[in-house]
Fold:
Amino acid sequence: MSSSISMSEIIISNEAEHHHESSNNMRNSKWVMDVKEKLDKIDKSNEVDEWKKICIYRIPACVKDLNRKAFNPQAVSFGPYHHGDGHLKQMEEHKHRSLLHFLKRSTIPIESYMDALHRVGKHLVDSYDWLDEASDDYRDQYGNYTDQFLQLMMLDGCFMLEILRTATETSDDYASNDPIFSSHGKLNIMPYVRRDMLMLQNQLPMLLLDTLLAVENGGKPKDEESLNKIIVKFCTQNTLTRSLGRCLHVVDVYRKNLLQEPRHKVLHQTHSYSRDDTVESSFEIIRSARELYEAGIRFKTSKTVHLTDISFRGGVLRLPEILVDDTTESTFLNLMAYERFHVGEGSEVTAYIFFMDRIIDSAKDVSLLHSKGIIKNALGSDKEVAKLFNELSKDVAPDDSLDYVHKEVSDYCKKKWNEWRANLIHTYFRSPWAVLSVLAAIFLMALTIVQTVYAIHPASP
Structure:
């Protein structure tokens, strides 16, 4: 018995010694030491500054899984997130060729460009959210950029500038049969590059493009609006007519060009409802465009194409004209993703999509808006357009920025005459046959009245 107790004590003693040793090892582990070091440095004001630096985000799986093709480039990668993707490697050769053309035309040595990029390298690498498995290649353990990161910035930055210049300049230093920069390439390849350039994960910091242009310009920074104009021209084929101010990347330029300036100018210019009224109205069922039309609401195009230029006055709902094609879904998903992840940016694009989703239920609604010049359908059937708007708002946090318009429309529809009119049209005038039946009934009733009158008061001989 005593030997048994002695053995138990030995086992317990060994376990305690092992536990103590493991505890000491854990206390001295690299992970614990790293946490303690970071704990001493944590500061709210520093965190605010760090988050402000990020403007190019990696889309999380919960968002990307809804439509992976909309967030992943199909033709070209810009920046570190998709660099090295197998299906994009073919474009790397064209990037290197464009770099040589850029440098030859510039006549400024590549060392001058790299020196300039070194001076802003920390700002460039801090623009990216999370570099995961590629972090060792582009960012060291202290968060600083690597030479490989700057080489990537130089290569991709020059290629993007060469691409953008095709919208405003005609360069004769490329071969007439160049697969990218010839007229053939502009027609057949550029549309895919343009689509990829409007993906949030596929962005380059505007600081990079500004730095390259400044060196090319002899060290003198160019007006920020000149680059904005080139981007707008390339992405929309339209000319920028107003100042967008300092932008963060191509997606930011494109988004700001879609919105009215100053922000919220149109979103809040006409409504007189309190915030409480707006919140209440968000729970109301919003009718479709066809139902609103039956209630007497007229649809007209807004004076501008800005997504925020939506208003309701005097029974007229004004909406901006929009072209819907095979790039619309990808573009809007990325714009909404940018609004979701970039804190403080606003949610005007998301508000517009929610508004359109509420008034579009079927192909009939699209057909009505098309007949009023609001929707330009280059996608296919009206049913496809309706499906697109209905799916764009999936798993996106609701935005109530336009709820005041919904409330004004709802109040208008609730007026007795408008309710009666809508019910009349819905019940008796939904189809040509129903209209004919009503007209026939009216004709027969009128004929019966005439016959009755003649029977009571026959014509004098």
About this structure: The chain has four domains: 2-42, 61-244, 275-418, 431-461. Confidence is low (pLDDT under 50) at residues 263-283, 418-422.
